[in-house]
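During the no-cost extension, the postdoctoral fellow (Dr. R.K.) reprocessed legacy sequence entries with the updated structure-token encoder. One reprocessed record is reproduced below for audit purposes.
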Amino acid sequence: MRPSIRIGNGCGFWGDNQDAPVHLAAHGGLDYLTLEYLAELTMSILAQQKQRDANAGYASDFIGVLERLTPHLHQQPQLRIVTNAGGMNPHACARAARAVLDQAGLHARTVAVVSGDDLLPRLDELLAAGHPLAHQDTGQPLAEVRSRVVSANAYLGAEPIARALAAGADVVITGRVADAALTLGPAVHELGWPWTDPQRLGMGLVAGHLIECGAQATGGLWCNWQRCDLAEVGYPIVTIYADGTLELSKPAGSGGAVNLETVREQLLYEVGDPARYLTPDGVVDFTKLHLDQVGSDCVRLTADAGVGLPPPDSYKVSIAYRDGYTAAGTLVIAGPGAVAKARACGEIIRRRLQQAGLTLARYHVETLGAGATVPDAVPTDYDPTEVVLRVAVHDPRREAVERFSRELAPLVTSGPPGVTGYTTGRPPVREVFAYWPALIARAAVTPTVEIMPSR
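Re-encoded structure tokens follow.
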């Protein structure tokens, strides 16, 4: 087994900087490149795409990134890629990736698919077997919205990723897995960690959590962001040692920063309880971590005993269901009394809809620039001379939302003076996929690993 491995993450979400993975591969000296594309909203988008096209439903940006990475894969035979770009359709993603590698003459590079997270085909079977998939916040049984469900995916852990690597995979493409699993899988495989060692598994999960959001650990969103150059921000690299010690850094000469502040900020990102960070591979106590600045843009992390605990006995499940239609439109309101005029415009639209016999289920008015984004953050007497009016609606009836979309532009000539910014056209009407978080017993989910043959 190896004494250490070096993993860089070049993507924190679908839509992230597509140059970052290439820069990491060229300058990071990596053993593994991870690419993290998925969020709950992303899964809903991918589910909608797959409904329209059976060959869609994955993060298509990955295929373009892989094409740009092929020269580096030729030059660096040790470099492996692990990504959750498979989304709702990991097999289709793997087929596209296989075609890219074959086209580039990389026939010997092996592609593996990790699946088993998609519970939609088994949903009725699971409900009948006594798995209620109740809403974690409200306790409602899933049966109440079953007819409108479009996707249901369990958050798998790192074990099938490690299994794929042990089978010789050079590129591992997964569906829904926990973000940190993309890093823990390679660590377990390369460093020989047993699944019964919560201390080292916990540190592997810390490593995965640190780099999963890309540049957020290297200066992005840093409270002192003015002290670094974010135009050429470097993406994170974590060196994981066999004893569980971690060192977080970034490519030499890149922008951004790696220091105690940037690392602490990322550690606390999306964490409900720092003493109980829940993942399918274990529970982590971040309060037992020790951080030391050991060089320019390098932070070492160690931990007291007990940083990791055994995993929970259930998987989290992300479910999306159809929940009506939405639209949101904006107008610029300028001149004296801009805030009052914007609010009046919002009320005019509401009354005109009522005159047409329509009361929408949800109707939300914001005056951006006057404290709407962060309520109570500006003085009550603050009166800017320009604001952006944003009106958003939601309703089960598509025709009601379409009528709303036609009500903003008329305000340019039939509303208060100073209304402008209407040239982008009517706001589009979109179907809403609502989020339903649930839990399911681990025994009900079976992760699978398949090798995609070269053509």
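The chain has a mean pLDDT of 96. The longest strand covers residues 314-334. The remaining legacy entries will be reprocessed before the final report is submitted.
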